[in-house]
Amino acid sequence: MEFDFKHLGFTLLGLLIVLNWGLLMSALMQKIGARVARRIGIRLYQPWIDLIKNYAIRSQISHGIMFYLGPVFRFSGGVGIFLFMPLIVGSVMWSNYSFQGDLVLIMYFQFFGMLGMALGAGESGHPNSAIGISRGLAQFTAIEAPLTLAIISLAIQYNTLSIVDIVEAQQGGIQNWSAWTNPFATIAGMLAALGSMGHSPFNLVKAPNEIPIGPPTEYHGTFLGVLRTNAAILHVMEAALFMNLFFGGANNWFEFILKTFLIYFWSVFVGVVFPRFRIEQSVAWFFKIPLIAGVVAIILFM
Amino acid sequence: MVSPYFLLGIGLGLAFLLGLLGQKARKSSSILILVALFSFVGISFSWLWQFLQENASVTQFFSAGFKPPFSIALQVGLHEAVLTSMINVMGLFSFVSLWRNMKDGNEKLGPILLILFMGLNMLVLTRDIFNVFVFLEITAIALGGLILFDEKKHARSAGFKYLIASALISTIYLLGAVLIYFSNGSLYLDDVMALNNMSPMAIVAVFLLILSLVLELKPFPANGWALDVYQGANPAIGAIVSAAIGSTMLFLLYKLMGMAAFMQEFLIAVGLISFIASNLLALVQKNANRLLGYSSIGQIGLIISIIGLKDILGDQFLFVAFMILITHFLAKAGLFWLSAMLKSDELKAWSVFRKKSVLLVLFGIFIFALIGFPPFPSFYGKWTLIINLAETHNYYLIAAILIGSFLEAIYLFRWLGYAIKVDFTEYDEVKINWEKLIPVLTFGALLLASGLYMAHLMPGIEDITLWPLLFILAIYLLDFLPAYIKNTISIAALAYFSFIILPPYYEKDLLRFIFLGIFAIGGILTLIAGYAYKGKRRGFYPVALLMYAGLIVLIQAETTLSFFFGWEIMTAGSYFLIIRGKRSMEHGLSYMLFSIGGAYAILAGLGLTFAQTHNIDILSLASVTVHAKLIFLLLAVGFLTKTAALGLHIWLPGAHAEAESDVSPMVSAILLKAGVFGLFILMIAMGKNPEVASIAYILGWVGALTALVGNLAAAFQEDAKRLLAYSSIAQLGYILFALAMMSHLGWMTAMVYSLNHFMYKAILFLTIGAVVLRVGTHSMYKMGGLIQRMPLAFIAVLVGIIALSGVPPLSGFAGKWFFYNAVLEKGWYFQGAIVFFSGIVAFLYLFKLIYSVFLGQLKDNLRQVKDISIWFAIPIYVLILGIMFFSAKPEWVLQPLSDMLTQWYPNTSLSFDGLYINSNFGYWSGTGVMITIMIMFIVLLLWLWILSRKVVKVKQFNIVYSAEAPQRPETTHVSYNIFAGYYKALGWIVAPKISELWNKISDFVVSVAHFGRMIYTGNGQTYLVHILAFIVVTFLWFLN
Amino acid sequence: MLLSIENIALASGILLILIGLLGALTNKNIIRMIVAFSIFDTGVNILIVTFGYMPGRTAPIIDGAKVTAQNIAQVAIDPVPQALVLTAIVIGFGVTALMLVFALKMHEKRKSLDINDYTDLKW
């Protein structure tokens, strides 16, 4: 495809929408969490204030070049997934740069940010960074096992690895969604989603209470701003991935916002109910029901 | 033609004359004896000349001018000429090797030696059955005499046991000879052989004759006396017993077997039992000379069975028998002579040869020759033997021979490993006298020369494959030069050689072009790293080049023989490379054993192939129809030992991890591709054969599980190089899995992985190796924070791990993308899921690698460490450029690859559309993704940079740490057992069950050997009982 | 005829062989073993001579009267077995002598003639 300023403009606009929606959504989720715990919670515009504050902080420290690059990697990871993800069904302009690669690209590009961040945090020399990252990676491998099975199952079902095609195939009503046509893959996928969203019970990675959390403590100011920006985008895009895979994608921005909210809410909902797992428990957990669901999903479509 | 009676005349005449002379004259007798032995050599060489150059015909000489049976006939033919030449050369050199013993007061040895070799000559020449008895006894008495004058502690008791055993055996021969006479009225061998129907008495007579000759050849278990002689006597005498007497007896047996066709099966059985049993019992032997004895008995057993196989082998018989005999003859004599230089009998004492590297090289040559490595004659002998046995459907014999050879390899290579690695300071220094050195040198040179000459003669081996070997010999002779000169020469040679042979392959055969490219370019790049080493680096260049020569031969091979030739050369070279590591003795051994086991599986597979195709063209594999499953399974197992598939992988981690810094990439990034190439060849053949799909299916599972276990195990390593080694196992598992899919996409995946693995594993191993050279430890938790000291190394590892992990935009992603498509197309979902899962597990160890080494806390002792050597950095960054190129323009590489693979899989869903690659399932634009990510990354970097221009760099311990600043990097650097939780959850998958299994198997074999050798009680009477029991059992067998 | 000269010779030959073997296997004393081997050799030699014996024939000496160059093959016995035995005896003598020297030398060093004392080399 030729380079096209209009397309780029739409993509940047989409990024802006997603960023703001992501910030709002995180505020909403915190609010919900607070209300469940019978607190009042934050104001809904708090994330914007935090962001501005972080970007405005003047004093910053760095532990070295990789420390500096870590947030850039992380941010690139989030933005990259956004770029390679189609947002709205049937719209060329809102499908971003997804023509450059398929589901496999997104699957593996997730690691770009994770790896860079891990290295950046690693350079801080903080022991808790290393502990957190090692747990995060360990848990992530476990999450990927059912998710991979679910994706294989979908790829067999739709005979494609293109997200655009998978979404297209689900159009025409709720009965065509993968959630309906391929329930086991959806179960595996949505259980894996719990892990990848990083809420309780799978939030040992950046457990806020027991240990002074590694990366967010060392990264502050602009770095934290970048990380928060990324987190907002990434959360929406992760939800968007599951939306595209299992819930028929979005035909317009309203549907996009509703569905990503609900999908993200799913992890928050579980999170406020269940206590945190230890790392070996969470790893083992993904190899039980989620894995079995994934296996069944494949067997059904073999 | 010179009459053979001159031998008799000279021998007896001089011996008697010396007896008559006075004490003083005897002192100077040595010269006379030397002249006599020279005249023996001259006579037999003149015969050889006449037969080889003048096509003389077989001639019989009769005593006293009568014809048999009234006279004794001596026959001189080509066979006799060859055998007497061997024996007389041996006689001459035995005399040389015993020179000092004679000078030191034992001048009587000279005449005895002369008589002994005269007797051996006569045994070869005579056609009279009774005459054989006479000379048997003469040689026995002469040998007894030699042992009698031996000063070694237990020589005499051994000699006595030998005498009583040989007295019994020769009496049996005598009975046989007499019975022959009574049944035929003639003792003339040709008369007996001319008989059509043998009377029962004649049959019994022949039985006794052959039986006694077999007993002379020390069959298991009636051979305790011989073992004691080998152990007790001077090794120079052992050399005579093993090489000269053994060869003579074998020839005698061959000669007399002309009248005993009914005993062929007996010979096969006895020979093979001896071969296997003595090699088995030798496993637990610690005395060098006794070990050589076991080995001799084994080799002679093998040749006995070959004599029994005469009819089966047909016109190949002489070739096979001679190749194995000449190897045994030269190598065993050489080994015994080497042993004679040492004071201690211990195996480990051979490590002192390291001080005189030429002796170590000779030792290596002899060992490799005995095991049947190319280019030595036994290689061709074994090859031809196996091929012919397969052709005649004697599969059990193949199995027996290969098992025996394998057992032999175990102890011989363990021994070689001792010599190369064990600390030699506690052993007496070896004092080398010219008379000890000359025989060994000559025999080693003869062995090499005969091997190269045979390779030249052998159909199926191209002459071009020999040039590298000669070059390697030359490089060895230049070993005294400093390393950088040899390095330059080696690089130049490799570059020149690849410049000549590589380009034509681009048009002719892209697959070979790619693999050859990996070997050649990888070879040059890894050799560049060698400039970082100071000093002479003795022995490195010959063996490194040997490996590369083998790899190149392997690729060039157009026949199965030259393929196997290259395979073995490569194995030999890589063995020496691996064992160079500081703690690599056992790893070298286990590498070698797995390699040899694999090579034998390949040999058996190729043999079975030849049996039905009658063709050694490498393409003939594809036309296999009978036993296809067995053949392909054997070949697959062979190649999988090299690629370290699960179950056959236990040698790899140690071998790769303990190797030197620039050797690890050689054996990992480059050498493993030899196995991949083998698998390609195999799979190409299998692709044409639908009935072996089940094997591909199994291989697919093996590959998937290898990937899983390899990656998981890598995540739990603390040793950086071990981590990379396990990673290699897993990567090769991917490749195996991809190949086993037997589809266009699958093979694309395999090719992409092979190329990528070559590049990133070379980068990683080179970098980590270079870091290890600087920091002096493999343990990652002892490093940390090195990014500050070694930015070059950090960038290299960063690129390496991004490429390995498959994260876009680097080239590793190409492999992942093809993998998904191939798996979906093939329908191997579960195996595929395991592979994908293990791909993600890879992140664990990749993070651990880069974090523990380069990030975290810098240790105090490493604060002054320098960045990696520039000589490592050059190849590393060249490879990084390669990865970048492949990542930016993947289609430039992928499209030709895809076109190439269509010759095997014409139907493919893969299509190339400009920058886009499309399959049935998905699409991907490497270039597009690369550009998108680069722009995005730069924009975001600028975003951060603009917003945070006032960043202050803080010191090491300036972190939020429980309200205090930590002071000790050791306690702050979290690295050791970093994935403990993960291990708790999934560690059971990598429990070392497979190593345990192999250990149990080897323990069992060792305990069998321990138990088995108890039959040799050391008591002469027990040995007599063994002999009698042997006679009775064989007799009962024949009654049936 | 049971007690014919051949049968007696045959029986004694076999008997001597067996005695010799038994002696060599049961006697621990090296000298006794050597003696046993001599007996064994003798038995073998007797056996050979017995095989070569042809009843009613005369010595193979052409004396012009009873044995002539023409009828030698019919009246005289075959001289070869005797010749062989003669050779065997000579060789046996050599072997026995060598064995005795060995026994002497072994005794010199260790002051023992018990074969069980010479089992240092084993396994």
Describe the structure in your own words.
The complex is a heterotrimer of chains A (302), B (1040) and C (123). In chain A, 71% of the residues lie in helices and 1% in strands. Chain A is mainly alpha-helical and 302 residues long. The longest helix of chain A is centred in the N-terminal third of the chain and has 32 residues, at 5-36. The radius of gyration of chain A is 19 Å and the shape is globular. Chain B has a 3-stranded antiparallel sheet with strand order 3-4-5. Chain B has a two-stranded antiparallel ribbon with strand order 1-2. Chain B is elongated. The radius of gyration of chain C is 20 Å and the shape is elongated. The longest helix of chain C is centred in the last third of the chain and has 31 residues, at 80-110. Chain C is built from 4 helices and no strands. Helix content of chain C is 65%, strand content 0%. Chains in contact: A-B, B-C. Chains A and B meet through strand 1, helix 3, helix 4, helix 5 and helix 10 of A and helix 33, helix 34, helix 35, strand 5 and helix 38 of B. Strand 1 of chain A pairs parallel with strand 6 of chain B, so a sheet runs across the interface.
Give the structural class of chain A: mainly alpha
Radius of gyration of chain C, taken over Cα atoms and rounded to an integer in Å: 20 Å
Q: Which CATH-level-2 architecture of chain C?
A: Orthogonal Bundle
Q: Give the overall average pLDDT of chain A.
A: 89
Summarize the amount of helix of chain C as a percent range. Answer: 55-70%
Oligomer: heterotrimer
- How many extended strands of chain C? 0
Taking the alpha carbons of the first and last residues of chain C, their distance comes to 52 Å
The third-level CATH topology of chain C is Helix Hairpins
- Say how many strands of chain A there are: 1
Helix content of chain A: over 70%
